[in-house]
Structures are given as structure tokens and as C-alpha cells.
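Work Package 4 report. The design task specified in the project plan requires that, given a folded chain encoded as C-alpha cells, an amino acid be chosen for each position. We show below one input record used in the internal validation round.
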């Protein structure tokens, strides 16, 4: 039995690799091809029914995938789009689940509202893994950031609501209990994720061997997720937060070799786990059909219900995204109205003495009582506090420019609506329904149909939608300009270091020291958000390659 299992695993790895190669040539996303391949193979008469424990997906597959996506997501974009992401991740999931719950009580005989909402919660979250399909079409980085952030966080809302709905089916609804469970799931998980992420960076910064360092990184998502689940929180949120903390801090504390090793290993992990999810989804089709037939459910009617549910999900999403875009537009207009004032503050911040005097005068003008006087005194005595204020001013100005340069209109909104794909989370969550759930085989199969229909119907047509609505894409000219400006800043930094060394009577500055200083300047600029994250990432790759080259040339001498 063990040898048979090992053979199946090897065949699955080979199939995922081959399909990934073919997908690039065909121009079709690999998840869609793997879903089709799994479905065809699963229907062959000599292939046994496949059933995977949902906990393997929820606890074993999704935490590392979400962690990997969070590590690579720029923190500045996540912060800027947090309002949109939180609305899509919480409010939209709740609204979709409630509307779907009402629909299912109408079309599934004998199904209570609580069980309907449970099924609605299963179908509501989008899939962060499935958004890999969207990236292939050169869509605006802002749209991609919103979709990725939504996919990272909405699983927690859906799973908490699912558990609450299952409990409500037996004991009744408790809005306060649901709100409390959600708060615990998010707050506790976020705290665990922050702690694990920081400990991870602290430990790996002291690990010299790149393979050992990468091996430690593979344990991070589970180290965050498992204790969170044990405490009743969301393991997925804990893994995501640990990934965000790691991704933000890694360039400052980890060497280029360690980060490069991490990136290569995690890319391999993503390919295998993503492929396994969609391959297994296809393979499970036959078993779900057998269960449905045994419970005497009509396949055509079931497919019609699933199609209607998917249409409702998209309609609710469109109804939510439209006012969300209006709110984001108002935010951009408010920023444009105060931009000149913020820019004047930014110019003032370039002169630390004048900026300190202006801040102190303003604090004195608005000081109220002992607390106000204390703030004035802190401004006088803490120049680093003034510097932090200057950073916030520059970041505010960069945020305004970002919102003005990348507006979200109806074209981008159409992509946000259509690109909200359902996937592995929906299927895995459906299979966690308890055995005593009414018409469990029907509910699970409906979840599969919605996930598969979304992946195939939306995933296969997203390119056509993009070509039709023509949303804003990547501004290549702006990216090239940012890269040139960043390279100029790095050259100026190197020249300044050399002038300082010559003024002190020292010789040429060591190139490794120059790279360290340049990386610090680059990360400070990235924190302020004045340049596109992709441009910062490209220039950082140049610095990393330069440092790795220097260290490789020096290694034989050091080893002698």
C-alpha cells in the first residue's frame, strides 16, 4: 500500500510538472488544465474514487501557500489597499453568505436557513491561489494587490461563519457569539503571526547555512497556524500575518543568498501544492457523483442550482464593488485636494531645523494643558521623533500620488468582479461539513460545482474580459523611470560614501559596505512608498546579485 501511494505521489508530481510546461505553450492557466486532467482521469473506470481529508488541505496545504503569497506581497500596497481588502474580506463574505443562505432555503427542500448560510459561507471566499490566473494578463498592480489581499484574508471570515452556522443549526443564532468568535479568530491569530514572524527573522538572521535557513522557513506557516487553531483562532490568518512580517523584514536581516534560496524553494512548493489542489479537485469528481447518485439527487437540477448560486455570488460582488469604487474615488479626490499642502510640508521636512521649529510652533499653538505641553517638550528633545513625522509626511504624499496615478474606474471594477474566483478553499470547506448535515452529499457537490464552475467559467474567460473592458495595465514607462531614479540614488549614495572616506583620509570604500548602505537607502525609500514596489524589487535584485558575486569571488581566499 505504501509503495502504491508513493507511486501515485510521483505520478502526480510528474503530471503537475508536465501540465505546467504545456500550459505555458498553450497559453492556458495550469490550474485549469490540472482540473481538467484530474476530472478525466478520475472518471476512468479503472481509477478508484479519490477522497482527501479536508484537514489536509485546510491545515496542510493552505497555510504554506498563503504564507508564501504573503511573503511576496509588498507591504506598502497591502497597507494602502487595506480598506478595500477588509471590506471585500469581511463585509462582502458576510453579505454573500446571507444572500446565498436565503436562496438555498428556497431551492433545496427542507434546508434550514442556518445550513443555507453554512453553504453560502463555503462559496463566499475567493481563492488566493486562483488569482495566479489573473496575473498573467498584465492587469494593474493595484487591482492585483486588492485581489491578492482579499484572497489572503477572507478565508478566516468564511470559516468562522461556517462554524457559527453549523452551531446555529443545533442551538440557534447568536450574533454576539459570531462577532466574538470572529474577533478572537482574527486578533489572536494576528498576534501569533506577528510573534512567529519576528522570532523567525531573529532566528534565521543567526543561521549561516542557506539550506538550514530555508528549512526553517518551511516550518514557519505551520508554527503560526497550529497554535492559532489550538486556541480557536484562524490558522490561515496567523500564517498570512507571519508571512507579511517575514516579507517586510527579510531584506534587512537576511542575506541575499538566504533570500534567493527561499524564493526558489517556495516557488517550487507553490507549483507543487497549487497543482496538487486542482488535480485532486478533478480526481474527486467521480466520488462526488457516486455520492450524489446514491442519495437520489437529479444531476441536472443540481447543476442548475450551482449555476444560479455562482451567478448570485457575482451579482452580490458587483453590487458591493460599485460603491467601494466610489468610496475609493472620493478618497483619491480628498487626497488630491490636500496634496499641495502635504507637499509643502515635505519640502519643509528636508530642512530638519526649520521642520522642527514649525512642528514645535504648531504643537504650542494647539497645546492643551499638561498633555499638550508634554508633547511640545518631546518635540524639542527628540529629533528622531521629528524624523518619524517627516517619514509619515513623505509616505502620505506618496500615498496621494499612488491613488491619483492608479485610479480604479468601472473598467477596473469589472475585472475585480470577474476575477473573484472560487477554488480550493470552497471545496475543502464543503468537505468539513459534519456527517449529520442534511443532504450532505448535495451540499458538498454544490460546493464543488461552484468552485469548478468559477475556475473554468471565470478563469478561462478572464483574458477575454480584460481585452473587452481594457482596464489600466502596468505602466511600463513609469516603472522604467522609477528604476532609473533608484539607480541614480544608489550611485549618489556610493559617491557620498567615497567622499566621506576620502575626507577622513581612508582608502577606497569596500564594495560590500557600499552595497549595505545602498540597500538601507533603498529599503527606506520602499517604506515611504515613493517608488513602485516592482521597481524597488528589480533594483534590489541587482544589489543582491552584486553582493553574491563579491562573496563568491572572496570565498576561496577565505577558505584557505
Amino acid at each position: 500500500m505504501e509503495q502504491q501511494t508513493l507511486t501515485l505521489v510521483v505520478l502526480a508530481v510528474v503530471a503537475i510538472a508536465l501540465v505546467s510546461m504545456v500550459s505555458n505553450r498553450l497559453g492556458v492557466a495550469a490550474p485549469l488544465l490540472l482540473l481538467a486532467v484530474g476530472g478525466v482521469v478520475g472518471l476512468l473506470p479503472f481509477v478508484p474514487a479519490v477522497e482527501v481529508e479536508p484537514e489536509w488541505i485546510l491545515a496542510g496545504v493552505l497555510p504554506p501557500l498563503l504564507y508564501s503569497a504573503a511573503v511576496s506581497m509588498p507591504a506598502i500596497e497591502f497597507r494602502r489597499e487595506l480598506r478595500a481588502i477588509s471590506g471585500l474580506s469581511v463585509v462582502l463574505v458576510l453579505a454573500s453568505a446571507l444572500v446565498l443562505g436565503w436562496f438555498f432555503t428556497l431551492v433545496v427542500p427542507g434546508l434550514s436557513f442556518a445550513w443555507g448560510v453554512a453553504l453560502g459561507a463555503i462559496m463566499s471566499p475567493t481563492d488566493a491561489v486562483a488569482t495566479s490566473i489573473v496575473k498573467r494578463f498584465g492587469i494593474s498592480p493595484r487591482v492585483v494587490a486588492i485581489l491578492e489581499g482579499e484572497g489572503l484574508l477572507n478565508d478566516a471570515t468564511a470559516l468562522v461563519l461556517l462554524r457559527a452556522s453549523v452551531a446555529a443549526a443545533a442551538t440557534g443564532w447568536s450574533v454576539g457569539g459570531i462577532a466574538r468568535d470572529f474577533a478572537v479568530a482574527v486578533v489572536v491569530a494576528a498576534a501569533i503571526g506577528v510573534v512567529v514572524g519576528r522570532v523567525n527573522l531573529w532566528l534565521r538572521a543567526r543561521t549561516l547555512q542557506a539550506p538550514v535557513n530555508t528549512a526553517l522557513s518551511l516550518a514557519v506557516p505551520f508554527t503560526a497556524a497550529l497554535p492559532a487553531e489550538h486556541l480557536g483562532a484562524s490558522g490561515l490568518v496567523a500564517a498570512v500575518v507571519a508571512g507579511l512580517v517575514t516579507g517586510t523584514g527579510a531584506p534587512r536581516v537576511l542575506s541575499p543568498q538566504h533570500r534567493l534560496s527561499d524564493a526558489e524553494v517556495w516557488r517550487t512548493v507553490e507549483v507543487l501544492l497549487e497543482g496538487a489542489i486542482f488535480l485532486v479537485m478533478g480526481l474527486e469528481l467521480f466520488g462526488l457523483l457516486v455520492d450524489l447518485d446514491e442519495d437520489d439527487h437529479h444531476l441536472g437540477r443540481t447543476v442548475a442550482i450551482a449555476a444560479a448560486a455562482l451567478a448570485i455570488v457575482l451579482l452580490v460582488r458587483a453590487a458591493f464593488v460599485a460603491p467601494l469604487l466610489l468610496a475609493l474615488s472620493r478618497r483619491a479626490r480628498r487626497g488630491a485636494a490636500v496634496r499641495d499642502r502635504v507637499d509643502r510640508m515635505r519640502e519643509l521636512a528636508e530642512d530638519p531645523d526649520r521642520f522642527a521649529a514649525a512642528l514645535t510652533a504648531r504643537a504650542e499653538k494647539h497645546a492643551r494643558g499638561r498633555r499638550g505641553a508634554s508633547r511640545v517638550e518631546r518635540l524639542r528633545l527628540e529629533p528622531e521623533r521629528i524624523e518619524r513625522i517627516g517619514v509619515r509626511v513623505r509616505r502620505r504624499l506618496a500615498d496621494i500620488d499612488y491613488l491619483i496615478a492608479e485610479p480604479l474606474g468601472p473598467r477596473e471594477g469589472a475585472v475585480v468582479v470577474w476575477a473573484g474566483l472560487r477554488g480550493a478553499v470552497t471545496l475543502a470547506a464543503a468537505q468539513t461539513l459534519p456527517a449529520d448535515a442534511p443532504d450532505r452529499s448535495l451540499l458538498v457537490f454544490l460546493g464543488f460545482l461552484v468552485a469548478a464552475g468559477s475556475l473554468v467559467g471565470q478563469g478561462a474567460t478572464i483574458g477575454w474580459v480584460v481585452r473587452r473592458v481594457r482596464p489600466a495595465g502596468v505602466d511600463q514607462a513609469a516603472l522604467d523611470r522609477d528604476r532609473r531614479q533608484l539607480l541614480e540614488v544608489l550611485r549618489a549614495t556610493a559617491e557620498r560614501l567615497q567622499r566621506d572616506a576620502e575626507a577622513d583620509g581612508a582608502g577606497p570604500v569596500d564594495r560590500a559596505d557600499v552595497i549595505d548602505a545602498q540597500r538601507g537607502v533603498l529599503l527606506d525609500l520602499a517604506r515611504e512608498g515613493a517608488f513602485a514596489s516592482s521597481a524597488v524589487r528589480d533594483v534590489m535584485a541587482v544589489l543582491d546579485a552584486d553582493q553574491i558575486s563579491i562573496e563568491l569571488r572572496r570565498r576561496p581566499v577565505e577558505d584557505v
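The mean pLDDT is 85. Validation will be extended to a larger panel in the next phase.
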